[in-house]
Design a protein that fits this description.
The protein is of the alpha/beta class. The chain folds into two domains: 96 residues, Urease, subunit C, domain 1; 288 residues, TIM Barrel. Helices cover 39% and strands 23% of the residues. It contains 17 helices and 16 strands. An eight-stranded mixed β-sheet has the order 3-2-1-4-13-14-15-16. It has a four-stranded parallel β-sheet with strand order 5-6-7-8, sandwiched between helices. Strands 9-10-11-12 form a four-stranded parallel β-sheet. Helix 3 runs antiparallel to helix 16 and helix 12 packs across helix 13. The protein binds zinc ion. Zinc ion binds next to loops.
Length: 439
């Protein structure tokens, strides 16, 4: 059993950026078998008994990759958005008082539904109760890199400071080898972990050969702390600990210096750039142009629903284009196709899975998103890259395949009930809601 997606404008996002304006994609099992002009694959459906997906008018792209989020944080969305120091006033206290494994996992399932409906086929997560949460993520059918948070103080899933290290190791042992879930370790930030524990987390990642992700060079006070304490930047400090490597995904890295960028490039570490969250919180615009020029792998992230509000990458595309063009006063910088690369092939390279996903090519996993062009905001379509980056929204996502499974069709989840997911989360938010309104 497989699928033939026909009548689509395919943007393969492969190395030569091949496109098929009237194309077809043959899926067999979890893989893409063929990509060609529609006429070349016309007989395949009958021959192979494949189910035909008529993609008339749609643009087919590799499933988008959201390189940084916190899927357990849906309950926080729209809380204290415009408050100063929201992290320490709302997020951390509420997490300690009201976040449970059940709430985190119901939230994660909601987040997966939201991301699938936005064409995202893979995401990178940092949260608590990651083992409980992983079961919900797995049930959604999405691909995910899930990182157990490690922090040097009592947190919602561990009364012991740094309890996340032990939880994380068990989590990695349990989930390593899963076909959709890649477990990893996630020290929360450079300034919320001791140097020894950052080293331990990196050693754990090396021992199990799994990724490691961390908030890096995000906060003004973080920069100031490392300057005063060590006379270094956080990235220089991490390098001095020997923890930067190709398995390291640094979230944000807003305040990277030219030397920091050289270090990241030299160590092969990747950056998850969250333009929406970074600018909403007035923290700044990371030097992505310089990072890419130096050879640093950069992917796009939404950050959590408390920080970036929406979990779709279309919002990031638009903000990315506008902030970076404006920052450099250069309209031709980052054309739409280059921005799409950051969410597909470039992101796959940043996560070290470019041999598996990130482009529509024979042999790759069938992670494919179809974006319709029938809606009022999508006409006309002279340039499909441009339409996706500047005109489209998550609501234009029509069909999503992950690992060869059809998870979204006609803008609806095929195997999950969004009203049920929402109701279950809503009902589990009782204590959280009371604590939130009391702040
Ligand atoms: Zn974050």
């Amino acid at each position: 059993m497989g699928y033939l997606i026909s009548n689509v404008h395919i943007l393969t996002m492969n190395k030569t950026m091949d496109a098929y304006p009237d194309g077809a994609i043959l899926i067999e099992g979890d893989r893409i078998l063929r990509v060609a002009e529609r006429s070349a694959l016309a007989g395949e459906a009958k021959n192979q008994n494949h189910r035909v997906i008529d993609g008339r008018g749609a643009i087919a792209v590799p499933g988008f990759i959201n390189a940084h989020t916190h899927s357990g944080m849906i309950p926080f969305r729209s809380l204290g958005d415009d408050c100063a120091d929201r992290l320490r006033r709302f997020l951390l206290p509420l997490e300690n008082r009201a976040m449970t494994g059940e709430l985190a996992s119901l939230s994660a399932l909601y987040a997966c539904a939201e991301m699938l409906l936005a064409g995202i086929s893979c995401f990178v997560d940092m949260y608590y109760f990651e083992d409980t949460l992983a079961a919900a993520v797995k049930a959604s059918g999405i691909r995910a890199f899930l990182g157990q948070t490690v922090m040097g103080e009592p947190v919602c899933d561990s009364r012991e400071p740094y309890g996340g290290l032990l939880l994380g190791e068990r989590f990695i042992q349990k989930w390593q080898g899963d076909e959709l879930i890649t477990p990893m370790i996630a020290p929360h930030a450079t300034n919320t972990n001791s140097p020894e524990k950052i080293r331990e987390a990196a050693a754990l990642a090396a021992r199990y050969d799994v990724p490691i992700t961390m908030h890096v060079s995000e906060m003004d006070y973080e920069m100031e702390y490392f300057r005063r304490a060590y006379g270094m930047t956080p990235i220089g400090f991490l390098d001095s600990l020997g923890v930067l490597s190709p398995r390291f995904i640094a979230a944000h890295s807003i305040h990277s210096t030219p030397e920091d960028i050289r270090i990241l490039a030299r160590r092969g570490a990747a950056v998850a750039h969250c333009i929406g969250a970074n600018t909403k919180s007035a923290k700044g615009v990371a030097p992505v142009k310089e990072m890419l020029e130096a050879g640093v792998k950069v992917a796009l992230g939404t950050d959590g629903p408390a920080s970036g509000n929406t979990l779709d990458l279309f919002t990031q595309f638009s903000l990315f284009a506008k902030f970076h063009k404006t920052a450099h006063r250069d309209r031709i910088l980052f054309p739409a196709s280059a921005i799409l690369q950051l969410a597909t092939s470039g992101a796959a390279a940043a996560l070290g899975i470019e041999d598996q996903v990130g482009s529509i090519e024979p042999g790759k996993k069938a992670d494919i998103t179809l974006v319709e062009t029938e809606s009022v905001n999508m006409f006309p379509c002279f340039d499909p890259y441009s339409v996706l980056v500047y005109s489209a929204t998550a609501a234009n996502t029509d069909t999503v395949f992950v690992n060869g499974r059809l998870l979204v069709r006609g803008k609806k989840l095929t195997g999950l009930s969004l009203p049920d997911i929402r109701r279950n989360l809503d009902e589990a938010m009782g204590i959280f809601r009371r604590e939130a309104t009391a702040i």
